[in-house]
Design goal:
Elements: E1 2-3, H1 11-37, H2 104-127, H3 133-141, E2 152-153, H4 175-187, E3 189-191, H5 202-205, E4 234-236, H6 247-252, E5 258-260, E6 281-283, H7 294-297, E7 305-307, E8 314-316, E9 329-331, E10 336-339, E11 352-354, E12 376-378, E13 393-394, E14 400-402, E15 418-419, E16 425-427, H8 437-441, E17 448-450, E18 471-473, E19 494-496, H9 512-521, H10 525-533
Parallel strand pairs: 3-4, 4-5, 5-6, 6-7, 7-9, 8-10, 9-11, 11-12, 12-14, 13-15, 14-16, 16-17, 17-18, 18-19
Antiparallel strand pairs: 1-2
Amino acid sequence: MSRIPIRTPSRSSVRNDEDQYRVTVPQYAAYQHNSIAHQGKSSNVPNAPSDVFKTPSRPRSVIPSSSTTPLPQPSYRPSSAQGISHRPSTAVKVNPIKAPELHKAKSSAGLREHIAKARAELQKSARKPAAAPRARQAAVSSTASDDVPSLEVDDPFSAIKDPFNQAKNKPSFDPQLDAAIKRARTDGRLAIASMRLQKIPRDVIDMYKPDPSHVIDFSMDSAPSWYDYADLTYVNIADNELEEIDESLIDIIGSVATIDLHNNHLAKLPQSLLELSQLTTLNLSDNKLTTDILNLITLLPTLTELNLSRNKLGGILSSKLSKLDQLSRLDLSDNELEAIDYSLTGCTKLQHLNLSGNQLTRLQVSQLSQQTGLVELDASRNKISPALIDTTLTFPRLSILNLSHNKIRELQDDSHVLSLPNLTTLSLMQNQLTSIDTILDESKNLINLNIEGNNFTTLPNRLFSLQTLRFVDISDNRLEVIPHEIGFMENLSQFRWEGNPARMRGCFGLDTQGILKYLRGRAPLTDIVQATDNLDFTD
């Protein structure tokens, strides 16, 4: 219910009502005098005119009196022509007393006072907040004479929060999302990761559209306007709950170079992804993508980094990857790949290749003969068993080689040599190896060597001459003797030997330097003299 205040009568209408009232009062006084004079007697006095007691259609001033009770003020009744329901009028009761003398000045002053009071009440009610429906109804039903006249009107939309459905597609305000969008407009980097998004927010899709509710300010000191927004070059929507990518997103990231969508629930990608001609880095790890996704991704020739780890890729790796001739980093770890064959032949610029955590049973150097620029190769946690080196080949830049947690029994045969002049880290832990002599001969810059959990009974002599070694782990093998030559490896800072049948009394609990000292103490005198001759005592 709505409360509609009635407009206060104008000054001209008030003057006309005063004149009409002055004419009416003498007739009323004459009738009252005749009634008193003939009280208790039959009289032939004619009835008073019918319009004497008629409730006036406009407010009347109250006739003041010092000795008698003033006449009741007629209630205000709006005109029926306005389509407003009338409030019940108050019945006029005439006391049988002498009518007071009419004083025009006092009557006019009282009317003005009443009008001023009504105006004050109207202004007071306008300053108050809107009342609740029940309070509004109580105000309308009040019979106080000083209240501003009001009426009840049925409001069909009063109980509906959004009667015209204007907020149907309006997203709820998220201060974190809003702040990310504002930053992206200025620096071109959209970072909305870890926001539990199930779809791309509409605020992101429309982030470059000018808001019609905002006034465009062309002044020099104003905040950045829509025509000054930066193009997006970096988009991070990782760690959310997305199941698909809205096609509309591609429309606003035409200049993007990096997209990070890892750790979502994506099972497919939009075809419009091919429109991103400047895309170089794509991270799709931790999703639900299958091998078929490569049919789309391999049509992005500008890619230099691709991460498809922890998805559902299976079978033989598609040879279509050869189309990505600009690729320098490829991560296919933690999938279900069974073989790579020669699928990477065209990826001649590949530097980092991660194939760990798959079902590979075979990985041979000949399959990577075109990737001589490799810097890092990780094929750990597979089922590789045959010889890795099936041809003579040199990887001049290979620095890290991780073949741990496989079933490798030998790395190469006697007829083939793998040259790794820049190899610094070699991890062969948890295999079935018994010798690594040949590979150590071609790795003169080795720093970290881990052969833990194999079947070594002796250590190669080449190991003791690698003065660049700093970390050596030979634990959990079948060594019955720990060679004392290890005690003379000057740069060795960490050495682990536990889990072997060798007995080294008094060495348990010692740090690396303590163990090296113990081993030197067991060395023959000739070895000590020879090691001393090799020391440089010059400043």
